[in-house]
Design brief:
The protein is of the alpha+beta class. It has six helices and four strands. The protein has a single domain (3-170), classed as NADH Oxidase. The protein has a four-stranded antiparallel sheet with strand order 1-2-4-3, with helices on both faces. Helix 2 (23-34) packs across helix 4 (97-118). The radius of gyration is 17 Å and the shape is globular.
């Protein structure tokens, strides 16, 4: 599959097969994120991979992710951004490091999602979560930003494409 095909076939998957994702495939997905560009090559993206039932149950018992189906995904990737990764700052040109870190994490996450699609895996972005509480539960450094998680697994559904705005609607 090429990048264009991955972009066209990617869907938000909310139902997964009861089948574990091998570590080598999880690592391949994370590696795609690692190769993404970042401002000043700061590489602020960090990931906490949740595969075990005990940790998922702990997250569920604390009502961390609003979308209840997310706990059934074979893998939950907690996407983190470290704003302290930036050593260079250009006054009047750069955004605050928190914004830069989230922006770079979003780019890396796109690479991750497209790689997963190419591998025949499904993903879904979940932004409704208790961001500070998840850091405490998973012992993620307090200065990290956790804007979302991405579920990962073998799809148990084939959603139809959702409507998209036309190019003429998004060009200014």
């Amino acid at each position: 599959m090429n990048v264009k095909k991955s972009i066209e076939s990617r869907r938000s998957i909310r139902q997964y097969q009861d089948k574990q994702v091998p570590d080598d495939l999880v690592n391949e997905v994370i590696n795609a994120a690692r190769l993404a560009p970042s401002g000043n090559n700061a590489q602020p993206s960090r990931y906490f991979v949740v595969k075990d039932a005990k940790t998922k149950k702990k997250l569920q018992n604390n009502n961390i992710i609003r979308d209840k189906w997310a706990y059934d995904a074979p893998v939950i990737i907690v996407c983190c951004a470290d704003p302290k990764s930036y050593t260079k700052f250009v006054e009047e040109w750069d955004d605050p490091n928190e914004i830069r870190a989230i922006r770079d994490l979003a780019i890396a996450s796109s690479y991750m999602v497209l790689q997963a699609t190419e591998l025949g895996l499904g993903t879904c972005y979940c932004g409704w979560l208790k961001k500070d509480k998840i850091k405490k539960i998973l012992d993620i450094p307090p200065h990290f930003i956790v804007p979302y998680v991405i579920t990962l697994g073998y799809p148990a559904e084939t959603p139809k494409p959702r409507p998209r705005k036309g190019i003429e609607e998004i060009l200014l």
